[in-house]
């Protein structure tokens, strides 16, 4: 579904991604881990063409994306994104936040978009919060609305960038639970997270990043129980 080949990204003189090769199959959950500053967020942003890259190829659904020729707004609809800081529109209700892209980007009829938004709210366990504004929601509820909003465009895959890192500890599980349900339903996902329990339980593949490179990848069991690389061992000692 997603194939990255030899991706290089620099900010000025700083090499942030140094030749990334990554495959994500349909229905697969890939958890991306690694030290702060290793390039995880940059990689997700490149996948969604929020960053221009110096070199490399990104293939989506067997098509090579050409950022100079293709309509990137259309390309971005294939990948939904969920951020650490939710990024909800503060002056819109939960329902309106979810309806926004279908109505304004896809030009879907309001009534149809609203019905779909209510289904999504139900899916993330927030049917009763349709008319609540973000300021009236807990962090966990906000993130669940953000997930529903990402799903509203019917993406082929979801990219999560530390979706629970801004949450109070007691709110982490409600978000992980929604993510786990999505995984069980076959949603293709790339998840940057420090939640190693989630990685162990849900990931098909764990990918370890360090200094702009993928240093190791394998099943959770391989990576957590018998890491091959020194850098993986070091990182795991710090987070486990
Ligand atoms: P991670 O998500 O793994 O913590 P990031 O992808 O956020 O890492 O950052 C990787 C490196 O790129 C860091 O050294 C960071 O300072 C740098 N970086 C990220 N975004 C920018 C930017 N917009 N301009 C300059 N440097 C950046
Ligand atoms: Mg990051």
From TrEMBL:
The record's subcellular locations are: Cell membrane
A molecular function GO annotation: ATP binding
Protein's membrane topology? Peripheral membrane protein
Which InterPro entries has this protein been placed in?
Answer: AAA+_ATPase, ABC_ATPase_HisP-typ, ABC_transporter-like_ATP-bd, ABC_transporter-like_CS, MetN_ABC_transporter-like, P-loop_NTPase
Say where the protein is mainly found. Answer: membrane
> What are the UniProt keywords, alphabetically?
ATP-binding, Cell membrane, Membrane, Nucleotide-binding, Transport
Every copy of the ABC transporter domain together lies at: 2-236
Q: Which domain of life is it from?
A: Bacteria
Protein's UniProt keywords contain Flavoprotein: no
A UniProt-annotated Pfam family: ABC_tran
Asked if Membrane is a keyword of the record, the answer is yes
Indicate what this protein is called per its UniProt record: Amino acid ABC transporter ATP-binding protein
Taxonomic lineage is: Bacteria, Bacillati, Bacillota, Bacilli, Bacillales
């Amino acid at each position: 579904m997603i194939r990255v080949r030899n991706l290089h990204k620099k900010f000025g003189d700083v090499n942030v991604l140094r030749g990334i090769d990554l495959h994500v199959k349909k229905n697969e959950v890939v958890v991306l881990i690694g030290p702060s500053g290793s390039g995880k967020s940059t990689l997700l942003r490149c996948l969604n063409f929020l960053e221009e890259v110096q070199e490399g190829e990104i293939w989506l659904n067997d098509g090579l994306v050409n950022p100079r020729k293709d309509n990137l707004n259309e390309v971005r609809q294939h990948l939904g994104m969920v951020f650490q800081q939710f990024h909800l529109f503060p002056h819109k209700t939960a329902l309106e936040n979810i309806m926004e892209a279908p109505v304004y980007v896809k030009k879907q009829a309001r009534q149809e978009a609203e019905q779909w938004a209510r289904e999504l709210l139900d899916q993330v366990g927030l049917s009763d919060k349709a008319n609540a504004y973000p300021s009236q929601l807990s962090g966990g509820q906000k993130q669940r609305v953000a997930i529903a909003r990402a799903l509203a465009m019917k993406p082929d895959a979801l990219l999560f960038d530390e979706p629970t890192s801004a949450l109070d500890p007691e709110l982490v599980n409600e978000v992980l639970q929604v993510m786990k349900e999505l995984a069980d339903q076959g949603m293709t996902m790339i998840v940057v997270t420090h939640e190693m329990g989630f990685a162990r339980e849900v990931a098909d593949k764990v990918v370890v990043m360090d200094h702009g490179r993928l240093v190791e990848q394998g099943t959770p069991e391989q990576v957590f129980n018998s890491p091959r690389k020194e850098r993986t061992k070091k990182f795991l000692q710090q987070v486990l």
